[in-house]
Amino acid sequence: MKLLVILLFSGLTISCRGNSSYSLPPKLLLVSFDGFRADYLQNYEFPHLQNFIKEGVLVEHVKNVFITKTFPNHYSIVTGLYEESHGIVANSMYDNVTKKHFSDSNDKDPFWWNEAVPIWVTNQLQENRSSAAAMWPGTDVPIHNTTPSYYMNYSSSVSFKERLSKITTWLSNSNPPVTFATLYWEEPDASGHKYGPEDKENMRRVLKEIDDLIGDLVQKLKMLGLWESINVIITSDHGMTQCSENRLINLDHCIDHSNYSLIDLTPVAAILPKINVTEAYDKLKKCNSHMNVYLKEDIPNRFYYQHNDRIQPIILVADEGWTIVLNKSALKLGDHGYDNSLPSMHPFLAAHGPAFHKGYKHSTINIVDIYPMMCYILGLKPHPNNGTFGHTKCLLVDQWCISLPEAIGIVIGALLVLTTLTCLILIMQNRTSVPRPFSRLQLQDDDDDDPLIG
Fold it and tell me: Less crowded by CB within 10 Å, the N or C end of the chain?
């Protein structure tokens, strides 16, 4: 009973306290290492990252959104929305009304991004706050006529060291203060495509470089006196799986290329038919047993990938490790984009700072859950989103959080205590209510009265 009272009291105390323990305004740095597959943490050594985790929190698997590509998932992280809701439905898109095309080299038109409001825009609108970005997808685009106060135009040739230097300078010396910043790096995605995740020798070298960059990041924050006050989230957009020239699905063997426009190729192909949709669907349906073919309206509900005009009439989804190609397509030894239920597609999340517990591990969250958590840390009112703040409460130091087994244990314990107390009360009531047994009147020895009956 005492334990139950303590837990309830501490929960009320924490919930009332809210964000008061944080310095004002709080600062948050969001870092993405593209293509960092979750189980790299178990299969390779990361001394710097593990030290970061030891003093913070780790989410072992982050379930990302379908399709598991770079642009869509980076936008889901900062909006908390599924792709059908935020509108960045692929790395390559086509809008049939405006006839516009989107690609990683043609991504600056706000038209594509304005269906959602990313967190850096929301943060910009807060009084006396600003945002900064080092090449996070979308940050160099005027979304809703707003860019971060400080940002870098995307260029893969700019080193991580230069990006880090810019971000930490803006975090340290800006007026109004930068309270939200993002930092993006292309590895280990580029090497995962080139070598495949099963190439242990090359991936070990690349991942050691990533770990060294994390060491540089921590050291820079410490040198500038930011380490103890800033909240840092390190995560990724997707994982990576091994591909092979023995696992190819050649569309040219199934349907004449003149019968459709190919908007996106592999492993999720977006098909805009030039012939009757049903006819094109029937041809593709027979193409290969290692590829699922969906009419837009039949895409499984669990993908949350139906309700947007940028999703094409026919979607092809290859099985894990299979590649959809045309006759002249080049093969990548590693790829992503597959079903988001596959563990190989999942990234991880690690976080450190005054908002987070120390030495805490959590099994899984959804990638859309990151957004409401970040809004809470920054004290921002989130826009409507598909995330659930409750999924991340256990990561936060000022949130009362118990697991389901703990909750069941507390309920059972409370019932046992109440049952025991009830039994004790009933026993005591029974004792006091039982009539005293009849006893004959006892006369005192010195009683002078004569007995009434001789």
Answer: C
